[in-house]
């Protein structure tokens, strides 16, 4: 990650929590810089997708000063030119704490306006009550790879683990053993990953080893998923592919990117127990 991209970012710095609403706290980062390292052309993206964020620390004041608490879900399109650095997003959301709004509609309108401007594309915003049934935990679909017996001593991304056979299959696989690290602070980012594809069968042991090989990799969640997508496409050449990660909440936010070949869609309303 280029130092210039993060110059002035709050990540890794001591930060005072804001006491008034401030959209300027949002810190956008150009996606193109990291995508260049994966030979991804910004003008012809090889995938569709979104970055889904869920915020569990959102509150504001009603006009008479009574607090409101809510949970928010944001969807940032993968074709947006910029992602938004997570700590700046957290600080921005905390800037709502002492701000008075006439209604939740006004809050949603402000969130959508500010985040869309920062990302450079329209961001979808949904607000939930804390007991909304839509937030109930679910399970990853498909076969879990985690009980496979593998031996591995490689903990940086290794596409050579992606081995295919002659049989063409359509299957959904997942693992809860994904771990990568923040590119600035080095803090661990724990997650689960789902891979759904149609194409030459992927060796399951090798795929699990590939997922585990991200264990010491330092990068943003969004870029880890894009690396997985491009590696699998290059090594296995499937007809269809979906890669989706569900990362564990940190600082009141969880980040859940997915990238897919055109027409593929992720499971709807999927939130895992540890999120």
From TrEMBL:
GO cellular-component term (any): cytoplasm
Catalyses which reaction(s): 7-aminomethyl-7-carbaguanine + 2 NADP(+) = 7-cyano-7-carbaguanine + 2 NADPH + 3 H(+)
Keyword field: Cytoplasm, NADP, Oxidoreductase, Queuosine biosynthesis
Protein task: Catalyzes the NADPH-dependent reduction of 7-cyano-7-deazaguanine (preQ0) to 7-aminomethyl-7-deazaguanine (preQ1).
The EC number(s) this enzyme carries: 1.7.1.13
Residues given in the record as substrate binding sites: 84-86, 221-222
Protein name: NADPH-dependent 7-cyano-7-deazaguanine reductase
GO biological process: tRNA queuosine(34) biosynthetic process
Xref: Gene3D superfamilies: 3.30.1130.10
UniProt xrefs under InterPro entries: GTP-CH-I_C/QueF, NADPH_dep_7-cyano-7-deazaG_red, QueF, QueF_N, QueF_type2
Keyword Oxidoreductase: yes
Pathway where this protein functions: tRNA modification; tRNA-queuosine biosynthesis
Active site: 182 (thioimide intermediate), 189 (proton donor)
Primary localization class, coarse: cytoplasm
Entry similarity comment: Belongs to the GTP cyclohydrolase I family. QueF type 2 subfamily.
Coiled-coil stretches noted in the UniProt entry, renumbered to this chain: none
Location(s), subcellular: Cytoplasm
Residues that hold NADPH according to the record: 86-87, 250-251
Enzyme class: oxidoreductase
One Pfam family from the record: QueF
Subunit comment: Homodimer.
HAMAP family linked: QueF_type2 (MF_00817)
Domain of life of the organism encoding this protein: Bacteria
One MF annotation (Gene Ontology) recorded for this entry: preQ1 synthase activity
NCBIfam families xref list: QueF (TIGR03138)
